[in-house]
Amino acid sequence: MTQMTPQEIVHELDKHIVGQGKAKKAVAIALRNRWRRAQVADPLRQEITPKNILMIGPTGVGKTEIARRLARLANAPFIKIEATKFTEVGYVGRDVDTIIRDLVEIAIKSAREQAVKGVRVRAEDAAEDRILDALLPPARGNFFNEQQATDDSTTRQKFRKKLREGELDDKEIEIELAAPSMQAEIFAPPGMEELTSQIQGMFQNMGGGRKKSRKLKIAEARKLLIDEEAAKLVNDEELKLDAVKNVEQNGIVFLDEIDKIASRSEMQGADVSRQGVQRDLLPLVEGTTVSTKYGMIKTDHILFIASGAFHLAKPSDLIPELQGRFPIRVELDSLSVADFERILTRTDACLTMQYQALLATEGVALDFAESGIQRLAEIAWSVNEKTENIGARRLYTVMERLLEELSFTAGAKGAETVAVDAAYVDGRLGELAQNEDLSRYVL
User: Same domain, yes or no, for 92 and 137?
Assistant: First the structure.
C-alpha cells in the first residue's frame, strides 16, 4: 500500500493528466484513507469502510487514465473492468463475482513476483551450483585427499568465473528439470468459472514432482533453473494468505462504463439484463463474501471507483440502491483549447515528444513551434465541438493526419528538419477542419 500523501498523489497524476483537479483530489483522498485506516486500532478499524467514488464526465477527458495511473501508484491489488462485460446471473456472460476472483489472482501474481525478487540472489547461486555440477565431474572417490580437494575447488572457481562472465553461455549441458504440469483447456458454461479453475488445478497437480532430463544451452538453462530454485524458496501457502488479506483490506476495483448498464426510461425491451447486473453489483459494493479457490473473500473494505460518460443515461437512471453505494460524486470537465495545448506539450511522454522520437529514427528532426501547437489545439477543439466530442482522443486523429505524408516519405529523403508551425498545420488540416462534412469522417 502506498504511503504517499494526497498532494503527492495529485502531483504524480498531474504529470500525465491535464486538469480534472476535483477527480484527482477525490481519488487521492480515497487512496490515502486506506493508509489512515490501517493506522487505526481494532475494533474501530473494522467499522471504517471506504467511501466509493462515481466519476461522471464526457469521453476522453481522463477518467480511465486516472484509473491506469492510480493502479501504478496504489501499490495495492487493483483491477480495472468494463461493466458491460457482465450480465445478470442466468444470462450468457460473466458473473460479477469473477471481478473479485480476478482481483485475487492479480494480487497473488503480484505477491509472487515480489517474493521471487526477494530470493533471486539465493536462487541464482543455487542455479549456478547446479550448472557447475553438470559441467564438472563429481569429486574423485577412494583416492580423494586434501590436495585433490583443493584442485577440484580451484577448477570449480575458474568455471564459476567463466560462467558469470558469459563465456560458457553457448555450451550445451544436460540437466534435470521439473516436468511441466499437464495443461488442460476446459470450456464451461458462464458462471462456472470457479469449477473450471478447480478442475484445471487438479490436472496441473497430476504428475507433480516428476523430473525430466533436458539438453539445453547454459544461457537458457540458467533462466529455467533460477525460476525453479526461486519457486522452491518461496512459501506459496503463506504468500496466498497474505495476498488474500491484502485484497480484503487494500483492494481497489475500477468499474468503467457503468453508464452502459443504466436503464434509460425510454428504453425497456433491451434492459432485461442491465438492472440485473446492477442488482448483482449491490452486495459486492456494499460488502459480501465471495467464494474463490483461495478461500472466502470479504468485500467490505474493497474500494470501488466507478466511471461513466452518462451522455445517454443519467446517474439517476442507476437503481437508487446502487446510487447510494457511491456517496462521492465527481464531475469531470470538457477539455478547452488551453487543455489541448498542455496535453500536447506539458505531460510526460506527450504526443509531440512521441512523434519526435519516432521520426528521429529516420533522421527527421521535428520542431513544433508554439503557433503550430496552438493551431493543433484549436483544430482538435473545433472538430470536437462541431461533431462528436471524443475529448483528448481527437488529438491522435489530428496528429496522424498532420504527419501522415511526412511519416510515409521519412527515410527516403535523408536527414531533414521540419518546422511545424501554424502555416504547416493549416496547409495540411485547415480545409478539413473548416469543412464539417469532411471533418466528420476524416478527423
Answer: no
